[in-house]
Write a structure and sequence with these properties.
The protein is of the alpha+beta class. The protein is about 35% helix and about 10% strand.
Length: about 180
Amino acid sequence: MKSIRPWIAVVLVGLAAWFVLRPAESVDPAALGGVWAPSLAEAQAASVEQGRPVLLYVTADWCGPCRVFKKDVLTDAGVQAKLGALASPLMVDADTPGDAGVLLDRLGVRAIPHVQWVGPAGEPGPVYAMQAGGLDDPDKFSSWLDRTAGGVAAPPEAVTPPAVAASADTAPATQPVVGSQTD
């Protein structure tokens, strides 16, 4: 009987390792709806144009909790409709952040999954606390979206995107030019 106990422990550890390290269940991008911007630049442009904040979601294919959040929350039709109405959503892969890498550094994103409101000019807003049990609850996430959506939204006229910033020739002498050394 004593010689069977170590084998039982080995089998249990092996099953636990398989459960944790099993291949990722992928979520078909089409199941996430068509509301996600393909880049930070496009999300910010849509944010300014529509007067809505960016909703940043940082994820990775290897992240188990991220997969749960995508599968159980982001595929929910009610959540997708709310995202389309309240935000300019941006999904960023933590392994290849592209043009959003600087924003992630500035916001101090250190763990994933990470969901945070970001204003049109990149100002930080409320963070969704997934540790509080909202990882697999679309209703809880939807309620958070409703409560916090206006927390960082700036009217479009309050933000001057760099592409349409005043030039040094037309800017008043007392105001810095967007993108100048005085910013």
